[in-house]
Amino acid sequence: MNTVGLIASILYQFGTNAAFLLIAAIGLIVILGMMNIINLAHGELMMMGAYTATIAFHRGVPFPLAIILGFVVVAIFGAILERLVVRRFYGRELGALVVTWGISLIMGQGTLILFGPFMPAIGIPGGSFAIGGYSFSVYWIILMVVSAAIVIALWWVYNRTAFGLMARATMQNPAMALALGVNTDLVYMLTFALGAGLAGASGALLAPTTSIAPLMGQQFVAPAFITVVVGGGANVLAGAVGSSLLLSIVKTPVGLLLGAFLGTVALLLAALIVIRLMPDGISAQLQRLAERRSGL
Amino acid sequence: MTAAAAGLWRLINGREDIGRTPWFWGPALAVIAVFALLPLEATEFEAYNVAYYLLNVPMALGLSLLWGYSGVLSFGQVAYFGIAGYTYGVVAGNLAPSPWAPVIGSAAGLALAAAVGAVFGYFVFYGRVQAWIIPILTLVFTLLLETFLGQTAGYQWRIGHVQLGGYNGMTGIPSFQLGHLIFSGYAFYYLALVITLVTYFGCRILANAHAGKVLLAIREDVLRTELLGYDIRLHQLGVFVLAAVLAGLSGLLYVQWGNYITPSQLGLVPAALPVIWVAIGGRERLLAVVIATYVLNWINYSLSGAGNEYAPVVMGALLLGVMLFFPRGIIVTLSSGWRPNARKGAAKRDAVFDENGR
Q1: Which of A30, A280, B51, B261 is the most buried (most CB within 10 A)?
Q2: Which run of H or E residues covers position B171?
């Protein structure tokens, strides 16, 4: 009976790590894959989502609704940001990195000045259950399901909707897509808003698992960026899923045996080795494999 | 002898920096003379403050070579600043009574910064990663280093008899010393001034030398440079290590200046500062970076008394504004606007500049 519990516990750890990495990185990866831009304000957008959800929750809004609110508010903010700033940096990757870093500094410290250093937290909903002497949090099980649902929803959006078709066309060849009547400007704005909204929803989803503070975004920055670096931008979903699973395989044993900090260090080392072996990330590798399979 | 001197002068007065005419060199020498004679007028405390504005210049110059001249952006220069500072503290602290401890400690600090830079650079440059990966990974590396040093409180985190000290940092770091000459007060001011001048002119020579031209060529077109027979990976690795050593040099001067260092020196906001100095001055011109670093440190230091919590907001807004309205940097934009004939050329270069995505 205890072995069942042990196996369940290891699987659970593995699942929480993978779900955490996927949720933390998904908004970043959507923006990178589409526009080849790294949004360094990602952590602060997550913080904004967490703040929105927390404030709404304490005003009596049910938690699931608060998460959706986090998505909507940050998505609108993202659309404004794209219009005013990010738009001018398409095709200038390094410039985009630097300018979004400036935004991140303003947002982090601005929140500290406006809201103060503390915010009452949200308790983890859902309670826990036990198998063979090991206890498991229901909320983290829900997060695993939600992260899978986000991936499926994104797959559906990109492969089954008109927006997805236009987005993929813009990604492959912006000039040709524009010539065929796709409003690429609008596609870029909606994609950035989608990525920002996902970051907001991620922040809201992770809000109960951490303390709510102006600089909370920083704790997501390292794992999210490593996930993106390992995943690469060639294929958004394959990269996000492949990378979070692989990194979870690295992080789970190291984290269990040596502690959370060394688990994150192991992530960085894994990322360095992965980029040495496959510089364009897992997604490019997977894509090449798929193309070889289909005989292209 | 005169041929060698003329060759050196050609390298110093080459194309790749601002100021090549007597109209530049006259005032420049006057400014250097003012700095050299400053201790005659300034109190020891004021000289110490000026030394603080100067000691960040090597780190900024390294980032300028890396980002402006080579097209490789790093957000983690403070990591090497911290590595060198902490290493100096540990080594010099342990050898403390010996008069040569600071020299050995400095050498160890620079060597470790170079070694870490080389290992990190090997993975990213020999992996030929895309341009956005390097800033991301250098930033992650810095944040992890800060987290690690932050949790080194307690007696077990001790190397020899020096404590790492967790978030409170390392204190009691010895000042620099050559034999029996201890560099404190005015002596430290001259140390910082000489190192600033030497690194500036050294970087200026490098930028105008053959290796500098190769770096510029890599920035403009990686593939073409490689097809001309240059090993781009080796050149990029070289400039990355050089930038790490220069950041380490600033770290050494910092701990020798204040005799302490804390992990917050490696945090997100300090990591942004070198990028801000270099972006505001103009990353493609060393002199612009030197001026911006000096002036911004001065402003930051003067502001820090009043409303310290607004400093990151102001710095972030400055960065945002400069990236939006002066993508080449304020000082570079001004200096190319001064020469009326250069206007058209500058506008043309701006266009090319945008096209190349930098």
Answers
A1: A30
A2: strand B170-171
Secondary structure class of A36 (helix, strand, coil): coil
CA A161 to chain centre: 22
Q: Is the dihedral of CA B282, B287, B289, B291 positive or negative?
A: negative
Q: What are phi and psi of B188, to 5 degrees?
A: -70, -40
Quote the mean pLDDT of chain A. 88
Do A42 and A108 touch, CB atoms closer than 8 A?
Answer: no
Chain A residue numbers touching B120 (CB-CB < 8 A): 272
| Domains of chain A and CATH, by start | 2-293 (1.10.3470)
- Torsion angle, alpha carbons of A26, A28, A30, A31, to 10: 170
Please count the structural domains in chain B. Answer: 1
Closest by CA position to A21, among listed A266, A292, A295 = A266
CA–CA–CA angle B341, B345, B346 (5° rounding): 100
Contact B143 A221 (CB under 8 A): yes
Contact at 8 Å (CB) between A21 and A221? no
**For residue A194, which of A35, A74, A24 has the smallest C-alpha distance?**
A74
In a domain, B135, yes or no: yes
Tokens describing residue B299: 């402003």
CA B218/CA B128 separation, integer angstroms = 13
- CB proximity A264 to B under 8 Å: yes
In a domain, B113, yes or no: yes
Q: State the pLDDT confidence band at B305, using cuts at 50, 70 and 90.
A: low
pLDDT band at B181 (very low <50, low <70, confident <90, very high): confident
Cβ B135–A97 below 8 Å, yes or no? yes
Which is more confident, A61 or B344?
A61
Interface membership of A104 toward B (CB under 8 Å): yes
Provide the 10 A C-beta neighbour count for residue B339: 10
Tens digit of pLDDT for each residue in A101-136?
999 999 988 998 888 888 888 888 888 888 877 888
- pLDDT tens column, A48-83: 999 999 999 999 999 999 999 999 999 999 999 999
Strand partners, B178: B181
- Parent domain of B217: 46-267
Examine the pLDDT at B108 and tell me if it is beyond 70: yes
Neighbours of B148 (CB within 10 A): 16
Residue B94 belongs to a domain = yes
- Per CB-CB distance under 8 Å, the chain A contacts of B127 are 275-277, 279
Cβ-based burial of A151 (10 A; exposed 0-12, middle 13-18, buried ≥19): middle
Judge whether B68 lies within some domain.
yes
Stretch (H or E) spanning A176: helix A174-179
Considering only CA atoms, which of B277, B266, B275 is closest in space to residue B85?
A: B266
Q: Are B248 and B113 in contact (CB under 8 A)?
A: yes
